[in-house]
Amino acid sequence: MHSPITRYLESVLDDCREIDGGAIATGNAQLERADPDSFAVALATVSGSVYAAGDCDTEFSIQSISKALAYALAIEDNGLERMLEATDVEPSGDSFNEISLESSTGRPSNPLINAGALAVHSMIRGDSAQERADRVKDLHSRCAGRQLNTDMAVYEAEIESDDRNTAIAHLLKSVGVLGAEPADVVDGYARQCSVDVNCVDLATIASVLANGGVDPATEEQLIDGAVNRHVLSVMATCGMYDASGSWIATVGIPAKSGIAGAIIGVLPGQVGVAVLSPKLNEHGNSVRGVAVFERLSRDLELHMMHVAPSGASAIREVTGEDATTVQLQGDLRFAGAESVLATVAKGVESGGRITLDLNHVRTMDDVARRLLEDAVVGLREDGHAVDIDDPHGVSAGTPRS
Ligand code: GLU
User: Fold this and answer.
1) Distance from the alpha carbon of residue 27 to the mean position of ligand 1, in angstroms
2) Pocket test for ligand 1, best of 97, 202, 242 (most atoms within 8 A of CB)
3) pLDDT in tens, 78-118
């Protein structure tokens, strides 16, 4: 079946192809050779489906998009506290390669501009530039579900045009925010940026971030959940260079863009998206890429502030007169557990036995678990008979398959 989602993506590309303007990034001789007309979009859901349209086999270097997972890796290596000493998490409002360091501490404003990304790269565990870059590439490969390769021609062109990053690295060293020697850090960072990907790879990587760091295909936790959330927060505020504020207001999807013309977007709990179109606007973001994201956000209601109320849907059915059975369902969090408590409170008024039926619950987070446990303890202390029907053990933390 030709999916309606694929057809929709094709129509979005057709519409946005009419948008022109912008220019391919200059500086790196290899990037300058990109086909300005290549255009692709891919969408990967947290349930593991992938939809793609356009030139999805076209490979390009990952560039700044690598900054997100490199940051995740550095946090896992060093701990968040240590990483926050190295770089702040404030939007800089400056362009990607601006020398924006805090005047008081010398810390880069955030890990997604070059100054921050160089500091982050320097703190990734590894004995050499190659080893640090390989570890970043390995994490990307695991998230993409295939082995990715470094494009040595891009890397060499990167090194030839890296005077500015070298200057930033020296500055970082002078304020004590660099975990290795400047030349070594610039070399490793150039390798990190030169890994080839296609749009499906990037959407698949984004779907891992959308899924709390868990690979939708293998269910393996590839990025720690708390680290994943932190990285997404920084993508939401700092991922689109100096256009991050307007992006989050209009598109509303945590994102990261790179100068090869790709953008990844991550809608937590739903979907990862990637677009490629090499011509960039004045902020360094792909002109057509931004247009595609605006369309998808609007048409598919993907803005992160557009959230369905989740409390009421936690209750599947309430039955019984003398004795009340409350059937719960889905993934229980604070709002769901609260609506269960409110329903149980009504059942209590009738005075009969209360059964919480968890047969249809898939997962419960710690907050929901604590709320329900406290409620059950309180009810029993008050002399009410309460049963919990939990054959799959979800209240003990076992997710239902
Ligand atoms: N390798 C590029 C640089 O550091 C990456 C820039 C980007 O994608 O924003 O200059």
Assistant:
1) 10
2) 97
3) 999 999 999 999 988 777 777 778 777 788 999 999 999 99
Q: What CA–CA distances, in Å, run from 348 to 154, 345, 374, 383, 384?
A: 68, 5, 15, 11, 8
Residue with the smallest CA separation from ligand 1 atom 2 is 63
Q: Is 66 in the pocket of ligand 1 (CB under 6 A)?
A: no
Sequence ranges of the domains in the chain: 1-307, 315-396
The fold of the 1-307 domain, in CATH, is Beta-lactamase (3.40.710)
Q: In 79-194, which residue ranges form alpha helices assigned H by DSSP?
A: 80-86, 114-122, 129-144, 152-160, 163-174, 182-193
Question: Which atom of ligand 1 is the closest one to the Cα of 164?
Answer: 10
Question: DSSP class of residue 242?
Answer: G
| Per-residue model confidence as pLDDT tens digits over 198-245 | 999 999 999 999 999 999 999 999 999 999 999 999 999 999 988 999
Domain 315-396 has CATH 3.30.750.24: yes
Residue 55 CB–ligand 1 contact under 6 Å = no
277 CA from centroid of ligand 1 (Å): 16
Question: 150 pairs with which residues across the strands?
Answer: 195
User: Is residue 30 within 6 Å of ligand 1 at its C-beta?
Assistant: no
Of 339, 334, 383, 308, which is closest to residue 356 (Cα–Cα)? Answer: 339
DSSP 261: S
Same fold, 1-307 and 315-396: no
Give 163's contacts (C-beta < 8 A, 6+ positions apart). none
Contact present, 114 and 27 (Cβ < 8 Å):
no
